[in-house]
Amino acid sequence: MTTTHEVFNQAEALADSDPSADEALLDALHREGAGWAEKDVRAAGELAGSAHTLELARLANTHHPVLHTHDRVGRRVDEVEFHPAWHALMATAVGLGLTGAAWRDERPGAHVARAATGFVWGQAEAGHMCPIEMTYAVVPALRHAPELAAAYEPLLASTEYDPTAAAPLTKRGLLAGMSMTEKQGGSDVRANTSRAEPAGDGSYAITGHKWFTSAPTCDLFLVLAYAPGGLSCFLLPRVLPDGSRNAMRLMRLKDKLGNRSNASSELEYERATGFLVGEEGRGVRTIIEMVNGTRLDVALAGAAGMRAALLAAVHQTTQRHAFGRALVDQPAMTAVLADMTLESEAATLLTMRVAGAADRAVRGDATESAFRRVAVALAKYWVCKRAPVLAAEALECFGGNGYIEDSVMPRLYREAPLGSIWEGSGNVVALDVLRALSREPATLPAFLAELDLAAGADRHLDAARTRLAEELHAPERPEAGARRTVELMALTLQASLLVRHSPPSVADAFCASRLGGDWGSSFGTLSPSVDARAIVARATPVLVPR
Fold first, then answer.
1. Where does the Adaptive response protein AidB N-terminal domain start and stop, copy by copy (predicted)?
2. Measuring CA to CA, which residue among 251, 227, 252, 247 is closest to residue 236?
3. Which of 538, 515, 518 is nearest to 528 (CA)?
């Protein structure tokens, strides 16, 4: 074959790298009490960045799940077929202890260790993390039913992945999901029409529909339905103890914008067997324990996606040349990358700080519990709002190559908006923050005390803290201003963490731009005086010889 030209000045894919070689993350791991887990986090990073894992991610997103409602002779089966790559990713995630293992680990920092491990592993592929995250989050809600928790929690904490459809207590490990929303309700779960009738043997017969149930092949689900005593929470197994299928009918899989490797479904229950978790009439209060866990994981996923997109952009611009030098060395491009690095590092510090608060709250720290109550919602709201903006800018760093499916960027771009929608959209979460501040008196002093740890370190931060305190102490907080208030809270909290824990080049630039007004309306509009090269150096991928 005749060769028409030589291929050069094209960037190779970012493979065989180590996303755990992240100074901000590792510092936070130690600071939040889980330095003992660094070896495990680093091992997860080497797995996540390997060419083998990235190929599994590609395959899982190329070969989407397929629903089989019936077998060849017409029997109802309600099975979802996944590509083997999905199962390989799931097996690794479960093996890393990312499901319920942290709940049975008595070491301080166990939940922080899990958060950091999930942060680096999740950079490889986000879709399979949905059932992983729900399995982690179901444990505290399930503890409202001690007998059920005693039976199922050890299997939810297992590090063995068992995808077989069998009675839960016969398996080596379990996965859990959540069925809350319905066609007519969405976030207004009290609009549910599903009904739960006492069956006379301690179980309930549940009939109704659910508009969004992710990972319908999980073994257990927390379900909301109206019992005689009001809206209640139930544990619904996919397979009953006698090995028969529960009356859970999969209607169709959602054809989603992103998160394509994961199966999200519409389903119906026809007198399906469920078991009460908590008290009748207190279903929302019970299941909110699970939602708090999934909100933290959604924020972590947003931060992980930001870091993955940033690393890909820096790698691309380091290899690609124009006008006689690498793109990364072009001052305008350096400014863009530096600005994205600030955003990513702020997201990492925020989510890890919340993970630390969650760990200490579980262990009985009342102040950290109050701080977590608002901080987890702040992190979920703000990080998930910023993730799509950063993903779009990172894609632009690739030029036309980033718009092609062969690159990882379209997948990262499609995944980025997900966090703002799942586990409460922006308005729902912002209003939840205001509600917590109004109804739970310990939350406001705990939040302001956290900001005070950075008092006097930066004039922009001090001014923002003063302005924010005045706003939060106002007698009324109008709903229309909820997003504005929550945004300022998140930015001020991020700035306080950066001032205390990141290099001055990073902290000063963040405070001046995000709080001081020395910023434009898009990435790359930092003051020309910032040390952009020093900032970008914190996002340079570390390659691992294989």
1. 9-163
2. 247
3. 518
- Quote the pTM value: 0.97
Single-letter code of the amino acid located at 410: P
- Closest-CA residue to 48 (of 116, 108, 111, 2): 116
pLDDT at 132: 98
What does the pLDDT average to over 175-194? Answer: 90
Is residue 228 helix, strand or coil? coil
**Domain covering 23-281, topology:** Butyryl-CoA Dehydrogenase, subunit A; domain 2 (2.40.110)
Predicted local confidence at residue 546, as pLDDT: 67
Digit-coded pLDDT (tens) for 298-338: 999 999 999 999 999 999 999 999 999 999 999 999 999 99
Torsion of CA 134, 140, 144, 148, to 10 degrees: 60
Calpha distance 526→535 (Å, rounded)? 12
d(CA 189, CA 231): 9
Distance (Å, whole) CA 516 – CA 220: 49
pLDDT in tens, 250-275: 999 999 999 999 999 999 999 999 99
Of 509, 524, 526, 505, which Cα lies nearest the Cα of 461? Answer: 509
The pLDDT value recorded for residue 431 is 96
**DSSP-derived secondary structure for 61-110:** HHS--EEEEE-TTS-EEEEEE--HHHHHHHHHHHHTT-SSGGGG--STTH
Side chain identity, residue 412: L
Burial of residue 453 (CB within 10 Å: 0-12, 13-18, 19+) is exposed
Residue closest to 489 by CA, chosen among 422, 443, 458, 457:
443
Contacts of 176 (CB under 8 A, 6+ apart): 131, 134, 135, 138, 156, 218, 219, 220, 221, 222
To the nearest 5 percent, what fractions of the chain are helix, strand and coil? 55, 15, 30
pLDDT tens digits, 420-454: 998 889 999 999 999 999 999 999 999 999 999 99
Contact status, residue 216 vs residue 177, Cβ threshold 8 Å: yes
- Between CA 505 and CA 502 the distance in angstroms is 8
**CATH topology agreement for domains 23-281 and 285-539:** no
Q: Which residue type sits at 8?
A: F
Q: Give the per-residue pLDDT at 398.
A: 96
Structural domain 285-539, CATH architecture: Up-down Bundle (1.20)
Q: 3-state class of 207 per DSSP?
A: strand
Q: Closest Cα partner for 101 from 88, 111, 89?
A: 111
Q: Round to whole Å and give the CA distance between 64 and 265.
A: 13
Domain extent listing, the chain? 23-281, 285-539
Residues, the chain: 546
DSSP 3-state of 457: coil
Calculate what percentage of the chain has a pLDDT beyond 70. Answer: 100
3-state SS class at 245: strand
Structure tokens at 457: 């370190």
Residue 233's SS3 state is strand
